[in-house]
Amino acid sequence: MPPPTAKKYAFDVVVFAISQVALYYAVKYVLNSLDPMRDKKKEAKARSEQVLGKLGRKNMKLNEYEEAILGEIIFPEEISVSFKQIGGLDPIIQSLKESVIYPLTHPHLFTSPSGLLGVSKGVLLHGPPGCGKTMLAKALARESKATFINLHVSTLTDKWFGESNKLVSAVFSAAKKLEPCIIFIDEIDAFLRERRSSDHEVTGMMKAEFMSLWDGLTTNDNLRIIVLGATNRPNDIDYAILRRMPKRFAISLPNKEQRRSILDIMLKNQRLEENFDFDTLVAKTDKFSGSDLKEACRNAAMIPVREYMRSHSTSGGDLADVDPAKVDIRPLKLSDFFVPEGDIVQPTKSTVTPTVEVEPEQLD
Ligand SMILES: Nc1ncnc2c1ncn2[C@@H]1O[C@H](COP(=O)(O)OP(=O)(O)OP(=O)(O)O)[C@@H](O)[C@H]1O
């Protein structure tokens, strides 16, 4: 048999190389199609492309975990809440602007050779339910124009179970790529609460990873990233976490003046009877949260509407025939807020459980 020629060798090498490439793609295809998260990853990729397009950063390279995190971004223009709609919290709004918005939008104001002007990388809003914490966070997102990551703990734990640590690190790496950025965690106590023996190992690892990456922010003054947390239960948050949130704002049940401001805002566009007695309404809503006040206003506002509908149906008319421009609903009266028998504001106040009311200094 004649010895193989150089040409034959070259041919064999090419065939071998092609078969290896084909094998590589075949294995990759099989592994991809076996991946149970394939559809979710595809979805996340599509969503992240959309988000990057909206942010004007189409060519940004992200890994698949960062793509998942991009699904948590809220755009300022998608938020309808502004600071003007929040009543009674002006001093807190001003402090939040100074500690969250300006450091992100005007970082040059916070740099000094001494390093004394360092910006806080953690801000906590705490207080009983329904008092405006989420509203404040949303308004901050809208007015700061920073990238706002509304981080749901379920995103870190459910989607790619077992890879939570990679998702946690993606939160921070994506935030760095998209700074200025606010990472908002509502009910932060559920995620970063004190360790319990019943905690899953993954939760502990995730928390440790989160804390160490958070420390990375605090040691680098140039990073314009802030972690903003909200909670009803500040006492459940791990002490180590509280230390990373030196700026804390107590959003308590509104006092008399605050209730007056909130009611002013809520009833601003409502037709009211002449000389509507705001003072009595304010006095009778002691211990109401902002959310309770909203509910009371909504219920009261329904009364004239219900009356109109009933009077129309008893007179044999059909509401569908009424010209919307001619609908004449009477102005709201103070008595609409009260049940006929007594002076209890409607609805019977929802169960506000003023959970642990902690003043910032008590948290230290
Ligand atoms: N200060 C306020 N000014 C105007 N409206 C308010 C205020 N506080 C609460 N509200 C009303 O109550 C609703 C619920 O408030 P929000 O969700 O911000 O409360 P929260 O403190 O985040 O409660 P939770 O702790 O239960 O999440 C708001 O959508 C708004 O209608």
UniProtKB/TrEMBL annotation:
<dbReference type="GO" id="GO:0005741">
    <property type="term" value="C:mitochondrial outer membrane"/>
</dbReference>
<protein>
    <submittedName>
        <fullName>AAA-domain-containing protein</fullName>
    </submittedName>
</protein>
<dbReference type="Pfam" id="PF17862">
    <property type="entry name" value="AAA_lid_3"/>
</dbReference>
<feature type="transmembrane region" description="Helical">
    <location>
        <begin position="9"/>
        <end position="27"/>
    </location>
</feature>
<keyword id="KW-1133">Transmembrane helix</keyword>
<dbReference type="GO" id="GO:0140567">
    <property type="term" value="F:membrane protein dislocase activity"/>
</dbReference>
<dbReference type="GO" id="GO:0140570">
    <property type="term" value="P:extraction of mislocalized protein from mitochondrial outer membrane"/>
</dbReference>
<comment type="similarity">
    <text>Belongs to the AAA ATPase family.</text>
</comment>
<keyword id="KW-0496">Mitochondrion</keyword>
<dbReference type="GO" id="GO:0016887">
    <property type="term" value="F:ATP hydrolysis activity"/>
</dbReference>
<dbReference type="GO" id="GO:0005524">
    <property type="term" value="F:ATP binding"/>
</dbReference>
<keyword id="KW-0067">ATP-binding</keyword>
<keyword id="KW-0472">Membrane</keyword>
<keyword id="KW-0547">Nucleotide-binding</keyword>
<dbReference type="InterPro" id="IPR041569">
    <property type="entry name" value="AAA_lid_3"/>
</dbReference>
<dbReference type="InterPro" id="IPR003593">
    <property type="entry name" value="AAA+_ATPase"/>
</dbReference>
<dbReference type="InterPro" id="IPR027417">
    <property type="entry name" value="P-loop_NTPase"/>
</dbReference>
<dbReference type="InterPro" id="IPR003959">
    <property type="entry name" value="ATPase_AAA_core"/>
</dbReference>
<feature type="domain" description="AAA+ ATPase">
    <location>
        <begin position="119"/>
        <end position="255"/>
    </location>
</feature>
<dbReference type="Pfam" id="PF00004">
    <property type="entry name" value="AAA"/>
</dbReference>
<dbReference type="InterPro" id="IPR003960">
    <property type="entry name" value="ATPase_AAA_CS"/>
</dbReference>
<dbReference type="InterPro" id="IPR051701">
    <property type="entry name" value="Mito_OM_Translocase_MSP1"/>
</dbReference>
<keyword id="KW-1000">Mitochondrion outer membrane</keyword>
<keyword id="KW-0812">Transmembrane</keyword>
